[in-house]
Amino acid sequence: MRAIQIFQPGGPEVLIKVEIPTPQPAPGEIRVKAEAIGVGRPDVLVRKGTYKWMPPLPTIPGSELAGTVDACGTGVPTSVMGKRVLVSARELTVRGGCYAEYICVPANSVFELPDSISSVDAISLPNFQLANALLKSNGELPVKAVLIPGAAGGVASALTQIARSRGSRVFGTTSTPEKASYALKNGVTDFVTRDPIKLSTEVMERTEGRGVDLAFDHLGGDSIIACLRSLAPLGMVVSYNVVKGAPSSDVFQEMRSLLGRSLALRTFSMHTFDQIPEVRRSLMQTAIQQMSSGQVKAGSAQLLAFEDIRTAHELLDMGTSIGKIVIQL
């Protein structure tokens, strides 16, 4: 079978296409034939060798795959044959393995897909799973408004849709008119400046001095400080990545300067749920139900061929891609 392996960290050129034996399921496992494979930021971190939960090299990267069960090991009911499923590396002992035509995984690790969700759309489900988790960060207190810098991103788009489905006003920033158009389709209600010096002033003006209840930041740097200044009383910033590095100034001192608002900052990772799989799986089942019922929709996908995985990583490195990048087999 075809697969992509990494033998050493580096740029897209270290993604090597290989031909390896098609795996056979062990007892308790199923084999899934891939129909769609997701390409995302965690894959880039693995490729660069900087992922905190880095698998040993050489490795097959890839965090999500949708396909059909075509073989099962002993102890697995044959009734699973032919079922359409989502494989998420969040359910596996090693975060990866999905850049391949076939993958063998524990039978109880996959998520069965309803007919209403295509294999390509299913690749977006982990983003909605993450968005559901992020929106629980404040204990699910009432949320009138949220702020989402970089609102055209995959997770940001999922956050926007779920926040809007709950009646929240969504403030977003984007870097291009094309990304603004995409974010608008996903439900952003108000666009504010990307300039971190002016951002909080705009948010406060648009909310009549109140601010937002939650801000979800993946940029870091000046953006975290801008998000803190944009919060309403008892508001919270949730930092789920730091693309631009650590905060630009002393966060604690900034929070003390805003003491009258009693603000909070939370760092967040889905790895929090590594030890509580029942919650993690419940979040995914919620995402499947939301998409199946039409409450949320997968964004437009950029479809590429298996041979174009390096191109997919180049697009991610440039930051110009809009929507989920999906390898379609």
SSE map:
Blueprint lengths: L1 E5 L8 E5 L9 E11 L1 H8 L15 E9 L11 E5 L13 E5 L4 E2 L6 H4 L2 H10 L10 E4 L5 H12 L3 E4 L4 H10 L3 E2 L4 H11 L5 E6 L4 H8 L1 E9 L11 H7 L6 E4 L9 H16 L8 E4 L4 H10 L5 E5 L1
Parallel strand pairs: 8-9, 8-11, 9-10, 11-12, 12-13, 14-15
Antiparallel strand pairs: 1-2, 3-4, 3-6, 3-15, 4-5, 5-7
Helix pairs in contact: 3-4, 3-9, 6-7
Task: Describe what this molecule looks like in 3D.
This protein is α/β, with parallel strands linked by helices. The chain has 2 domains: 2-124 and 298-328, Alpha-Beta Complex (Quinone Oxidoreductase, Chain A, domain 1); 127-270, Rossmann fold, CATH 3.40.50. Helices cover 29% and strands 24% of the residues. The chain is built from 10 helices and 15 strands. It has helices at residues 41-48, 119-122, 125-134, 154-165, 177-186, 196-206, 222-229, 251-257, 277-292, 309-318; strands spanning 2-6, 15-19, 29-39, 64-72, 84-88, 102-106, 111-112, 145-148, 169-172, 190-191, 212-217, 231-239, 264-267, 301-304, 324-328. Strands 3, 4, 5, 6, 7, 14 and 15 form a 7-stranded mixed beta sheet that branches. A 6-stranded parallel beta sheet has the order 10-9-8-11-12-13, with helices on both faces. Strand 1 (2-6) and strand 2 form a beta hairpin. The radius of gyration is 20 Å and the shape is globular. 42% of the residues are buried. The mean pLDDT is 94.
